Amino acid sequence: MALDGAFLRHIRDELEEALLGARVDKIHQPNREELVVAFRSREGACRVLFSARANSARVHLTEVALENPKQPPMLCMLLRKKLQGAKVVAIRQPELERLLHFDFDSINELGDHVTLTLTMEIMGKYSNIILTDEEGKIVDALKRVDAEMSSQRLVLPGLTYHLPPPQDKLCLLDHTAQEAVQAMRSLPKDMELSKALLAALQGVSPIVCREVAHQVGRGQELTIMTLNEEQLFRLQFFVQQLKETVAGRTGQPYMAVDLKKKPMDFSFLDIHQYGTAAVVRRGETFSSLLDGFYREKDQLERMRVREQDLLRMLSNHAERLSRKISAQQGELEQCAQRDSLRVAGDLISANLYNLPKGAQAADLPDYYQEGQPLVHIKLDPALTASQNAQKYYKEYRKAKTAEEKLNEQIALAGKELEYLDSVLDALARAETERDLAEIRAELMEQGYLRAQRGKKAKKESPSAPLQFEVADGFTVLVGRNNRQNDQLTMRTANNNDWWFHVKNIPGSHTVLVTEGRTPTDAAMEQAAALAARHSRARASAQVPVDYTQIRHVSKPQGARPGMVIYTNYKTVFVDPAQGLE
Question: Which neighbouring-strand residues pair with 499?
């Protein structure tokens, strides 16, 4: 977890500057694991987010607006009763522990001034928010912990609050760099240096330990055993530098993002360990950096959660269709033998007077084949020869009809499977919650999802297609999903515009807007690359892309969203990497 005790020490400075002397104005609990407390003072108003979520536990000033439930939870109502109007008098952090105590001067029911403490504990899945009175008794907690959940530390109303069990580590505020290095040298010799730092020092996260080890080894991975004298000297130097940064609270907020601009990590130290695999940005404040980092992370997390139900539903439907097609193809193979039924009927009809009554089988000459070899034909002894012939004709007609129906059903199932494939591709390329909402709305229209009872769908204007500028000043539009593909191709585009789509692979409709001009070869090539990039084949090296003018693209009546047919096309092979962001 990047939000370590040292980072929290810098956050505490920002909170003290903004909150000391401020009074609680409003308290909200947007979900079961987060609190938002609004403060007001002479200098203005601010809000603090208390989050006990396992993957994003934190406390900091926030500008992000979270939606609140209509009915506040019980803890929220209790905090409003106890802390509304209370003044912040202190914010405390024991050593470099990952927790903060917020002390409030409050007035109880009798009108007396009392001190209440709201404690934010940042401990991964054990993170908690606890309210205690002036005697240190727990008033209540966001997560109550009883004896069944833990035998070491109970968190229940009425019990005395105790700090989490301390770890056997050195606090840089109380120990020298030399003592820290000595503690590391007593660890197993084959331990990596970054892990040794993490095991020896209190309140520093893995990214900080990796950064120090990176500086000591100049990018080379080190273990305790491989440290030479120069590296030991460098280790003590950088640990001393870390100590001074933490003690003096002189760190700066840094965030590393990957090449796709997704947040990777953050720290109060400049980050060099990722090299060219990441871009490091410096934030204005520690709180704003956390706001931005977790806003993106939380959005991605919500996207993943919301994607899962759609992905599961689409996968189930696709699997069911595949099984259905496989079974129908097996039946179709059986129908392929129908001609033998007609031949059997013909041979029986040609030998009506030669078949004895009650016969169970007969060997009859097959005059359809050269040499008229004998064919063994089963008979129903309860039927006459004529009735046996009619029975074989009936089975032949039944097999012929079944073959026609099966071919029709297999074709329909194949088209539906192709459509589901296109939705899965759009889901894989969805970047925002709005993209997911539009895919969900499309699936509701097609009958794959049911609208929630009593909940009216919000009518929102459809999102615009992706827009890119390519060579020679031409514009390329790319659909985000099937409904947008239809809108782009059948309504937005002009007959003279050029239409691109990967060949026989799910992907976006891509339109090169000509505005009456003749597109250049470079513009056409980049448009084709964009079509490949926004398809399932985006990871391939050479992708076939069909292209034609919009006038040659049509939508069959009753076709599902995004499904079109096109003629007069050509095919070009392109590298998706040539597409533009």
Answer: 511, 548
